[in-house]
Amino acid sequence: MRVLAVLSPSLDKKIESKDKSYIPIDSLKIPLALIHVADEVFDTHDTNNKDLVLLKKKGFSLNYRDLGIIENAWKKLKDFDGDTYYPIGSDFCGEVVKIGENVKNLSVGDFVVQDGFYPYSVDGGKSEFQRITAVKN
């Protein structure tokens, strides 16, 4: 699985130019890249997942609020001595690939939009696969 992230300077040096980009904010040039992380594990019978669905992202965007988050992440990372990153993003749509036992209003294969309303969203839209709470009708 991959996440879009702000890179620490040392990690920026290790990632090839073709695999990263720089976003200009004011006088800053902030490094971003897709970082490979462990796959999301979603057991449909786990009681912690009973009201959740697992989505595979199909579309993703950054908004104005994300620019502030990116800038603040860079301010914390720019002087960090080590390979690390800060995942970003909050807006996405995707396909339901797994559902918890209590989810009745969504099915595998449905396309949905996550409610990323700040400050009430959980975990933003930071990875290719993501657990979210199913809408209760």
From TrEMBL:
One Pfam family it belongs to: ADH_N
Domain Alcohol dehydrogenase-like N-terminal span(s) in chain numbering: 50-113
Family annotation (SUPFAM superfamilies): GroES-like (SSF50129)
Top-rank lineage group of the source organism: Bacteria
The protein's name: Alcohol dehydrogenase catalytic domain-containing protein
